[in-house]
Design goal:
Distance between the termini: 60 Å
Shape: globular
Order of helices and strands: HHHHHHHHHHEEHHH
Bound molecules: Phenylacetyl coenzyme A
Pfam families: PaaA_PaaC
Largest sheet: 2 strands, antiparallel
Keywords: Oxidoreductase
Structural class: mainly alpha
InterPro entries: Aromatic_CoA_ox/epox (IPR052703), Ferritin-like (IPR012347), Ferritin-like_SF (IPR009078), PaaA (IPR011881), PaaA_PaaC (IPR007814)
Enzyme class: oxidoreductase
Number of strands: 2
Strand order of the largest sheet: 1-2
CATH architecture: Up-down Bundle
CATH class: Mainly Alpha
Number of helices: 13
GO biological process, one term: phenylacetate catabolic process
Length: about 325
């Protein structure tokens, strides 16, 4: 005789995860899964928005009209990424206003990397090459993350990030093929951005409280250290091609592991930046709060227009 085993909602969820079926907004999901996603996606969205500031700093000082147009487009792309990601987080039942409030009050986290200053034009190249390079390394696997709206947003984001990385590399190449002074500028920017970029991947695996569960739920597909190692292995030959020196005296090819060994990351610096004490944390929050205040009239006008349009539509119906 056939016995009918009733599956619990949790069993159905686990089965979907095991068989690589995406979880969609109306599906049942464990509260912790929802919370982890809201945390990661909203932090990611905030990073895109705050990430506009360091490069935005150079729009008015780009060295040519062509460079200015490219940089403007890139910074606008980052705003778009933030918007896709806020939309993805909203499908989990959190409001955009709440997420914004958390960012503006300093409660929410965003990537540590955007708390460093952009001191020279070469920093724009270094960000595109290194920071967007790290973002791609982290985000290509997220195109296969288990939550549908996040995975779909990542597909488009990654296409745009690839263009961003190419433009950063191209700036670095131009500087490295230029005068002695330009090459020095590129090396100096590389020296400042290399270590903070390695920190972007998050704490080492044994100190990462979220990785194990996120890997089990297939939110993350690789650990922080796995992605960091892949990034180093990808970037060292690119730096060599540019004729730049990786600022790490302990960097060494390890034949047995088929990858590079690299020096110790300064985790005190990382946690200090995450806690709000990096070189630009206060400036970044100040700039976001100022933009929020100065944009209030635009939001009010848009709302007034939307209400009027809705009334008109009702009347004509
Ligand atoms: N900065 O347990 P884990 C971009 C926090 S977008 C600050 O390992 P998880 C595009 C973490 O939140 C860059 N905080 O956490 C662009 C957690 O705190 P919580 C952003 C960090 O989530 C380019 C605690 O430490 N990308 O660059 C950082 O499993 C150019 C323990 O860490 C994403 O957000 C950090 N670097 O792994 C834009 C990608 N790392 O929340 C403009 C999606 C860790 O428990 C210009 N996110 N923390 O209080 C992820 O893949 C993951 O969230 C990780 C962290 C890998 C970032």
């Amino acid at each position: 005789m056939e016995t009918i085993v009733e599956k619990s909602l949790e069993d159905i969820f686990e089965e979907k995860i095991a068989s690589e079926i995406r979880i969609e907004p109306k599906d049942w999901m464990p509260e912790k899964y929802r919370k982890t996603l809201v945390r990661q996606i909203s932090q990611h969205a905030h990073s895109e928005i705050v990430g506009m500031l360091p490069e935005g700093n150079w729009i008015t000082r780009a060295p040519s009209l062509k460079r200015k147009a490219i940089l403007l487009a890139k910074v606008q792309d980052e705003a778009g990424h933030g918007l896709y990601l806020y939309s993805a987080a909203e499908t989990l039942g959190t409001s955009r206003d709440q997420m914004f409030e958390d960012l503006l009050s300093g409660k929410a986290k965003y990537s540590s990397i955007f708390n460093y200053p952009t001191l020279s034009w070469a920093d724009v190249g270094a960000i595109g090459w290194l920071v967007d390079g790290a973002a791609i390394m982290n985000q290509v696997p997220l195109c296969r993350t288990s939550y549908g709206p996040y995975a779909r947003a990542m597909v488009r984001v990654c296409k745009e990030e690839s263009f961003h990385q190419r433009q950063g590399f191209e700036i670095m190449m131009t500087l490295c093929n230029g005068s002695e002074e330009q090459k020095e500028m590129a090396q100096e920017a590389f020296n400042r951005w290399w270590w903070p970029t390695l920190m972007m991947f998050g704490p080492k695996d044994e100190e990462s409280p979220n990785t194990e569960q996120s890997m089990r739920w297939k939110i993350k597909r690789f650990t922080n250290d796995e992605l960091r190692q892949r990034f180093v292995d990808m970037m060292v030959p690119q730096a060599e091609f540019l004729g730049l020196t990786v600022p790490d005296k302990d960097l060494k090819w390890n034949e047995a592991k088929g990858g590079y060994d690299f020096g110790a990351i300064d985790w005190n610096e990382f946690w200090n930046v995450v806690k709000g004490n990096g070189p630009c944390n206060k400036d970044r929050l100040k700039a976001r709060n100022k933009a929020q205040e100065e944009g209030a009239w635009v939001r009010e006008a848009a709302m007034a227009y939307a209400e009027k349009a809705a009334t008109r539509e009702k009347k004509s119906a």
